[in-house]
Amino acid sequence: MALRSISRRFGSRVLSYRSSSVASLHSHATSFGFQQVKEEEKSKLVGNVFTNVASSYDIMNDLMSGGLHRLWKERLVGKLSPFAGMKHLDVAGGTGDVAFRIFDAVNSVKRRALRKVDEDSLEETQIYVCDINPNMLNVGKQRAAERGLGDNKSLVWVEGDAEALSFDDNSMDGYTIAFGIRNVTHIEKALAEAYRVLKRGGRFLCLELSHVDIPVFKDVYDLYSFKVIPNLGELIAGDRESYQYLVESVRRFPPQEKFATMIADAGFETVEYENLVGGVVAIHSAIKL
């Protein structure tokens, strides 16, 4: 597909061009790790993985990334620029990690003072945490209760499928998905749903493990991924197979440029991505105009 314009700056790459029909895309998510599976089987297999890892998900993220996932999520929320009164959808966000950061940003004393936000606007803020796995949502709800946010009306927990969201068209100011889109069966359907629920001017942001293209670093990263992470999963979570899948799923996910193209093909404009840690993760962003 011909691109109308591509520009590069400081490791970020920007694509801007009109989209073609989403229906013309082929699914890039018909595998379960390195195994080929039937499409109708994948969601169940992935569901089993996250049911198994739910209770140890946060500690394993800390161990696998050396705590860097916290900084990556802060970067994601910084790009979102949350505001009081916004309606935001965080997909595959069951444990609440991204939602809590958005909530904190909206309620920041400094931001409230700078923007002169009134209490009514804060009360109107709605952050929907949508996850297909009830076990992950239960972890998030428990964490919310521990933070004293168990009954907070700004946080809404919803069991739902990224490929068939239950939200109205043009209803959200922002959409985030962190470390989740590579696990859906049809990436293009999830992107189409993100586009559908966003308002005009709404922001799409995706944080995902991606592809390292620095030769020596890539070798080290591959060694760490395939030799260390599954062993950590077995040691800490008692589950080697789930973490073997998580490592393999990253290699099956489209490279940064290709995923950016898929986002544009879903209808989004001003598509760009930023590599972090040499491409270990990438943040893709776009706007619905």
Automatic annotation (TrEMBL):
Taxonomically, the superkingdom here is Eukaryota
| Keywords on record | Membrane, Methyltransferase, Mitochondrion, Mitochondrion inner membrane, S-adenosyl-L-methionine, Transferase, Ubiquinone biosynthesis
Name a GO CC annotation attached to this entry: extrinsic component of mitochondrial inner membrane
Which one GO biological process term can you cite for this protein?
methylation
Q: InterPro entries this protein is in?
A: SAM-dependent_MTases_sf, UbiE/COQ5_MeTrFase, UbiE/COQ5_MeTrFase_CS
| Enzyme's top EC category | transferase
Q: Which Pfam families match?
A: Ubie_methyltran
Q: Which pathway does it take part in?
A: Cofactor biosynthesis; ubiquinone biosynthesis
According to UniProt, the name of this protein is: 2-methoxy-6-polyprenyl-1,4-benzoquinol methylase, mitochondrial
Q: Which gene encodes it?
A: COQ5
